[in-house]
Amino acid sequence: MSGENLTGPVILSLVIATVFQLIPASGVWLYWRPNFLLLVVIAWILFTPERFGIGFAGMVGLMADTLFHTTLGHYVLVFAVCGTIAYLLSRWLMYLSIFHRAFLIFVMIIGAESIQAMLFSVWGVPVNLRHIPIVAVFAALSWLVVDLLISRLKIRRL
Amino acid sequence: MAVDNYTTWLSSIYKVADNVVRPLYWLTNIPAGIQDWGKTITIPRGVLKQDNLRLQQESLIHHGQLQRMSELAAENVRLRQLLNATELLMDSVLVTEVIGVSPSPQRHTVTIDRGRDDGVYVGQPLLDAEGLMGQIVTVYNGHSIALLITDSTHALPVHVLRNGVRSIVEGVSDFNRMTLRFVSPTADIVSGDQLVSSGLGGRFPVGYPVGVVTSIKQKPGAIFVDAEVDPSAQLDRSRHLLLLFTSGDLDRGRSDR
């Protein structure tokens, strides 16, 4: 696979995920909206571990921190942890079905949201742990779309 | 993380990033634009006529009330002059629209489409049709970021409209709930009391609705009671907001440009 092949799709997918993340939401959707950027990062690492790894996750996390005005390092940590797990499990996960991967995303998002809750607690920001399982469910459902899109995109580019 | 959280050294990085992300706000508002457009083209003519009639009647009623208010305001100024008190400044407003909302539910900030070019300044109060929304914390040339009153880092001085008892309302990162701080068990505050900004601290002007006390609970042994407040403003729904200027602020906005 050539180096230039995936640059465009990766940037495009990150921009689309950022737009989805920034769409003004209200009510419970604000709490339940999955982190689309994180899902896209996990997808790229899972499907192309030879190209994208922990560094990529950290860089996107840094970008997320600056764009979303979170404490610098907040998303770097969350993205890097999830990126590491995705990278370590990538070979194994390729043999599993999309639903198994969605289940892994569910577990991973629970972990990521717990890290975020811990960080917010450290900074004295109140957190509501009730929303974590619901966010994970929505993330797993969104994963089905992200998985299909990025896996097909990757196959087409190969 | 500690450097970013406790200092402002990295603020220039955020400013650059915010200018980069500005075009994305246009994209993120497309669904809302389509929704508005869909509503506009599908609404029946009869409903539009009814709305128009209702709005005309409301406008007439408000004009009538405004005449009475002008008379009361003039009387208020005269009485204040008699008491040698400071004359209350008349506030003017600038309509603005929300173009972005913080994606993190723990951070209650909104991005609005007015900036330094429009005279917006840090600390400027922001309202919606129902009450106080928050204050401007960062200003760019064409847009600004406002911290909402429900953010956990925000607190504002208020008083009870019924009897003038003073307190401080603090956000808890929940759009439908705030808390009153340092309320003694003997304070005359009951459920249903309307809270308005007290003007203490000099950030928010006096008399704008902040919220309604919904519950008061006392834990055994606690020095203060737990009082919950329902915000008056539609913090997670309002799209069209008002930036508040007093006459002094207008001069400040011009000199800041």
Descriptive account of the structure:
- The complex is a heterodimer of chains A (158) and B (257).
- Chain A is mainly alpha-helical.
- In chain A, 75% of the residues lie in helices and 0% in strands.
- Chain A has seven helices and no strands.
- Chain A starts with 6 loop residues before the first helix and ends with a helix.
- The model of chain A has no long low-confidence stretch (mean pLDDT 87).
- Chain B is α+β, with helices and mostly antiparallel strands.
- In chain B, strands 1-2-5-4-3-12 form a six-stranded antiparallel barrel. Chain B has a six-stranded antiparallel beta barrel with strand order 6-7-8-11-10-9.
- In chain B, a hairpin with a 4-residue loop joins strand 4 and strand 5.
- In chain B, 30% of the residues are buried.
Rounded mean pLDDT of chain A is 87
Supply the helix-strand structural class of chain A: mainly alpha
Radius of gyration of chain B: 21 Å
Which parts of chain B are unreliable, with pLDDT below 50 for 5 consecutive residues or more? none
Shape of chain B: globular
- Helix fraction of chain A? over 70%
- Biggest interface found: A-B, 31 and 40 residues
Question: Could you tell me the number of beta strands of chain B?
Answer: 12
Largest sheet descriptor of chain B: 6 strands, antiparallel, barrel
Q: Which oligomeric form is depicted? A: heterodimer
Measure the end-to-end span of chain A: 6 Å
Order of helices and strands of chain B: HHHHEEEEEEEEEEEEH
Report the count of strand segments of chain A.
Answer: 0
Global outline of chain A: globular
Which structural class matches the secondary elements of chain B? alpha+beta
Give the helix level of chain B as a range of percent.
25-40%
